[in-house]
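Same chain as my last thread, 197 residues:
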Amino acid sequence: MSVRRRTYRNPISGAVNESWTVDVDFHHADGRRERIRRISPVPTRRGAEQYERDVRAALLAGTFGRREAANFKEFVTDRWLATYPASAGNRQSTIEEKASHCLIHLIPFFGRFRMDQIDGELVARFFAHLRKVKASGRVRSEKTIKNVRATLRRILASAMEWKEISTIPELPKVKVPESQRDFYTREETERLFEACR
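reply #2:
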């Protein structure tokens, strides 16, 4: 154990204070060496020894110094919607469309999860949920699902760019059938103009 007691005098009050310092010299599996010196949050020898064990365990797991990823709802409402659509130069109608995708589809499903918990399985469950028949008996169109997918993809890409997550899960492809357009023939056009005259 590498814990040390420090005693120092407060220059203002003159009181003698005590703290415990943790000094961890850690060798990673890839050969890197990392040295951590911190004051223990618990000012006792036993508390400092436990803190040292916690630091070593976090270094071994690769989680030391990493903060917990934001909750999806907080990330989208506090950061992404307030920043990305306007900074990308989206039109007002596009910003409103992205906001409605978030409020109607994405936040109700992903809202309680942390950003780093969104994986391929969760995304697949989300798209299965989108394709379910609504209570009204209607089915969401593939175009709507594709647009929601694009918004989710952009949110995850922004989270990666802003160092909130390290990878983006694979999103399923959504194929929109081509819309059927029926144009008037020359004869139909002439009959329409005749009728209008």
